[in-house]
Amino acid sequence: MDWPDLASFPDYGLVRKRDDFDEQLARQAQKAGARLYERCNVGEPIVDDRTGRITGVRAKLGEDKREVAFHAPLVVAADGNSTRLSLAMGLHRREDRPMGVAVRTYFTSPRHDDDYLESWLELWDRRGAQDRLLPGYGWVFGMGDGTSNVGLGVLNTSAAFKELDWREILKAWCASMPEDWGYTPENMTGPIRGAALPMAFNRQPHYTKGLLLVGDAGGLVNPFNGEGIAYAMESGQIAADVVVQAHARATPAQREIALQRYPRVLKDTYGGYYNLGRAFVKLIGNPKVMQIATQRGLTHPILMKFTLKMLANLTDPTGGDAMDRIINGLSKVAPKA
């Protein structure tokens, strides 16, 4: 399937390794005037005992791990799913929101320069007497540098979620592929790495007592597809706009009013769509529903085009085709939780 033809996005994508992408972001921030501290491990928040407001963080800096303190009028928690800073401020994960897990590795492969990304919508748990279709998908992303990123993501709505070894599932899935693709143990260029996927605003509020949560720290992963980097970037941009507005206000009370906009903007932007995703997650957690969806849906080009647009959140916000209008309409009427 070709990438959707949209006014708000180009009709192509770019694949980069995460460490390369993060390096570019860090250096770009430096060029814009940010002070970057490397080999810096942030430990705990500095909290005003009188107000309960965060006023900075304590950290260990450099190879000698000397203790330092950083103070700021606002602190942004961009520390990923584990988000120790949020936990230390009493912001715990909501159990009523879905979680996923993703595992991936890299292989040298002749398929490294494929023109299309691959999503495999059938992942099977083949233990026991009866095979079970898992709620998730596998992917193959050609990196263009001689390697392919191969991995899978699965939702916690499966009954087998806690008992499965996801690295072994990945190995078994790769072993089922044609040998000449090169996804074999001897072609693996690094270890299999995994991460939790906190979805659908699973940590709230996104602003409280001087702390803003962005990206995975705020549970901004898309429940439809497990995508997190785009929403981390976008929530960072939204946070920056709000912070600039707040910083321009004359009094602490006015600044606080401006900062309270941040959670509202996030809910207006993603809330309805994420709630649709939560309903979708519950549906495909049922193996029978998942099986019918893959059997009937994968053979229907128009339905798959609609599914691609909805699952990847690729619609034009205004105008667009009939599919865009249906998806945008559903997102608008869904509760913005």
Q: What does it look like?
A:
The chain is α+β, with helices and mostly antiparallel strands and 337 residues long. It is 34% helix and 21% strand. The protein is built from 9 helices and 13 strands. A 5-stranded antiparallel beta sheet has the order 6-9-10-5-11, covered by helices on one side. It has a 3-stranded antiparallel beta sheet with strand order 1-2-3. It has a 3-stranded mixed beta sheet with strand order 4-13-12, with no helix packed on it. α4 (229-247) runs antiparallel to α6 and α6 (261-284) crosses α9. The longest helix is centred in the C-terminal third of the chain and has 24 residues, at 261-284. The chain is globular and about 60 Å long. The chain starts with 17 loop residues before the first helix and ends with a helix. The mean pLDDT is 90.
State the low-pLDDT regions, or none: none
Report the portion of residues in β strands.
15-25%
Helix content: 25-40%
Using only C-alpha atoms, the radius of gyration works out to: 22 Å
Total helical segments: 9
Mean pLDDT: 90
* Alpha-beta classification: alpha+beta
Main sheet, how many strands, which sense, barrel?
5 strands, antiparallel
